[in-house]
Amino acid sequence: MSQAGKVKMITGNKLVFAAIFLLQLITGATIDNQNVEVTITGLRNSEGQIVLGVFKDHESFKKEQSYREFRFSKKGISGNEMKVQFTIPPGTYGFAILDDETGDGFMQYNFFGMPKEGFGFSDYYHTGVTMPKFDDFKFDLAEGQKKSVNVRIRYIL
């Protein structure tokens, strides 16, 4: 076999292996993921976006280092409510939501350190002035389960 023939055969095999790997990666990721629907209530306007942080434990929540982050436009809200959907693998999670009215991706605070934008947590309405504990808003997402979560947005200012 000529050198050119060997190069074509090696390149062709690499492409086949890469295609098989990508196919397994894509199908494996979608089969294992579970559907989650989040109903967000109490929104005061349709400006900006919703930033939804997915946390796996108290330490990551305390450090504000989410496992995943989703952003949703508020253009299609109905009244003061909107629903969002996404998929994540089975596990234990907690959602922290920011009503990012300015659209910059960060919570805005006043001079005294009080939040100027709304926030909420998965199936938990936080009334305190300090951050809640992860255990207050965590939940389990089982394989094959479609999960519905409610978040009521709280505004301090």
What does this structure look like?
This protein is globular. About 10% of the residues have low confidence. It is 25% helix and 34% strand. The strands form two sheets. Strands 2, 3, 5, 6 and 7 form a five-stranded antiparallel β-sheet that branches. Strands 4-1-8 form a three-stranded mixed β-sheet. The chain has three helices and eight strands.
Query: Quaternary state, please?
Result: single chain
**Relative helix content:** 10-25%
Number of helices: 3
N-to-C span: 77 Å
Overall pLDDT: 87
Low-confidence blocks of residues: 16-30
Spell the H/E element sequence: HEEHEEEEHEE
| C-alpha Rg (nearest Å) | 21 Å
Structural class: alpha+beta
Beta-strand proportion: 25-35%
Q: What is the overall shape?
A: globular
**What profile does the largest beta sheet have?**
5 strands, antiparallel
Total beta-strand segments: 8
Topology:
Blueprint: H1 3-32, E1 34-41, E2 49-55, H2 58-62, E3 68-73, E4 81-88, E5 91-100, E6 118-121, H3 134-137, E7 138-141, E8 147-152
Summarize this entry quickly.
With 157 residues, the chain is of the alpha+beta class.
